[in-house]
């Protein structure tokens, strides 16, 4: 496994501010990444495909349109505009029957709500709180797992960084020793050459 950088250990940007300026300029030149979701994130579900009215209401809410005003005329009992028109009386009577049925249903619903509503609401609250607790527990477990992963990564990078620093120091010492040996060899070769010349001069003088 090859690591090009150890972000938990390297501190070149802190030691050399010029590098940080170069990195910031390079990042500023790059194109901004697309705000796309992760490929594993499923597409949003299509809601209320079988209910056009609910789909229309969802579209209204997403477009931030105001709620249309309630039609109050449906709760009134207007008489026919022409008292002599029989069809007008039939329409008014049908409206009165519809209003009466509506009030009867409201009365039945209120009676059912008064009898069973409180218990149903308590059960709903209990289920909602249980779901919220499960989600919070899963979130805490995920945060703990993330913290553990980051801790292990930091410990590993710190350990590897220390080893790399030690190896780099040893490499520097060895290179320095090699240079010193090479310089000593050059000096010895020069001394040997000088002694050879001296010996040749002494031999020629004899």
TrEMBL record:
Localization terms from the record: Nucleus
Protein name: Breast carcinoma amplified sequence 2
Source organism (scientific name): Daedalea quercina L-15889
Record's keyword annotation contains Coiled coil: yes
Keyword Coiled coil: yes
GO cellular component: catalytic step 2 spliceosome; precatalytic spliceosome; Prp19 complex
Keywords in alphabetical order: Coiled coil, mRNA processing, mRNA splicing, Nucleus, Spliceosome
Entry similarity comment: Belongs to the SPF27 family.
InterPro entries per the UniProt record, alphabetical: SPF27
BP GO annotations: mRNA processing; RNA splicing
Principal subcellular localisation of the protein: nucleus
Coiled coil: 128-201
Pfam families: BCAS2 (PF05700)
Start and end residues of each stretch annotated as Disordered: 65-88
Signal peptide interval: none
